[in-house]
Amino acid sequence: MKQQTCALLLLFSGSLQSAELVLKNGHILKVDAEFGQASALAIDGGRIVAIGDESDITSHITESTEVIDLEGRTVIPGLIDNHMHLVRAAQNWQQQIRLEGVLDYRQALQRIADIAAKAKPGQWLIASGGFVERQFSGRPKAGFLRVDLDKAAPNNPVYLQHLFDWGYANSQAMRHIGVDATNPPQMPGLLLDGKGLPEGPVTKRAQFLIEQKIAELRGQEQLAHSRQALKDLARAGLTTVVDAGGFDTHDRLYEPFERLDSRGEMPIRLFYMKQVIPWGKEDLSPDLARLEGVTFNRGSAFFRPVAVGEQLMLSVQDSAGRAARSSEQVKAEFLANARELAKQGLPLHLHAVHDTSINQHLDAFEEINKEYPLAPLRWTFAHVDGVKPDTIERAKALGVLFAIHSRPVLIGYRFQARFGAAAQQMTPMKTLSDKGVLWGLGSDSPVVSIYNPFRTLWWAVNGQMIDGTQISEQNVDRRQALIAHTINNAKLAFMEDQIGSLEVGKRADLLILNQDYLSVDRRKIASIKPLATMVEGRWVYRSGELGPFVDRVEQSDTQH
User: What sequence ranges are listed for the domain Amidohydrolase (predicted)?
Assistant: First the structure.
């Protein structure tokens, strides 16, 4: 990797290297080892050929070079999400209602109404998580009423999934499962109001039947759904996403993205974890034969496997309140499976939340490390909300890394309810930083978190839930948060010589922002938006607010 980097530096360091594009008069955050800043950069062939002040760039400008005056705007590296369930979510992306950042109940209903007005009659409108009912002023902690959803979308079935819990449905959605909202039958999970009519929330069988109806729609127009999902992420400021697979993420769900990549139509980079759980089969024991012929961290720069994960064995799946199973048989099977990955030299990105589980895994890792050094493999624990300082030290000694996720922005109140004051020390970004452990920042969206990376940065810096509730003392400064969301995530994916910072020889993935990330009030970091998103030297998104560059970048699609 070092030889490749040196070759790139030699290739792009010559002062006579011309540039296709120059950005000047900007506030450019390089996010390199010194967290340096610059005012101009030059791009050619999708890579950065020079960066510094304008005198460093002048020699790269020719008659054919396009020069854009940034007028003082801030530029940062493209943001990388190290853990998202995009492939699963993309199945019905164009039918999705996104309620992230909507903090008023009436505004939420208006958003639903606006989307319904553009939808075909009878088309399902779905929110697959990404919100909590307590975020909506005007009706806090109470959720959506059926009658209000009926007014917002009288001609469309609406289903709003609350995290991985219950849902809310309107009358049209209920009609699809045989429920007449004016004369409802007795059905488990169909919650009724004081008049005996469906109130809106659905659980148990009613929820199951609605979700089955929605599942029947999947598989239609998958290429269009997948393309739109990637475009929306580019609009949000993400230039690379790592898909974590997970429950019921069948192999066929990756096919639309593979097709887009083969056509050269991927607007952003989608890396993914190769799953050893054979979803769809009766036996869900890990099948390491699924790794045969898989080449990690090579091939397409837009679509490639970067690790095994996020599950290695379902028997060790844990949560913040429940540790992994710990029978001698389970531990022996985990050791055998993990040792085989190490023997093959494969990276691992492992779901691990509870401190007891993480220590159990480290018992196995320490044994494996005696035979196969783990540090070069960059094995990574994902989520780690409950990890303790001493456990972090154990992991650090092995070279194990950490992937932190902004789930507390939605579910932090549950940590508080369960763990009390100790919840303030959970998801320990500050402790990881203080101990010098490499950690990256992601979302685990779109169901239990929010995919907007500036909301993730806001949470990391402020330690608050979406509704402003203070839920963490483990927040970090904005520089550390940006490092974690860029170059550190590139390291988790073995791509730090290619992406993650703005340096000579690297791929030109960057954002032009509407506000300065370093000086904006930290409480307003979530309001930052990209004016333009570039991937590999191509503009893949631009905002109408862009002003002087309006004719120099591609038009963005109208947000659905």
Answer: 66-541
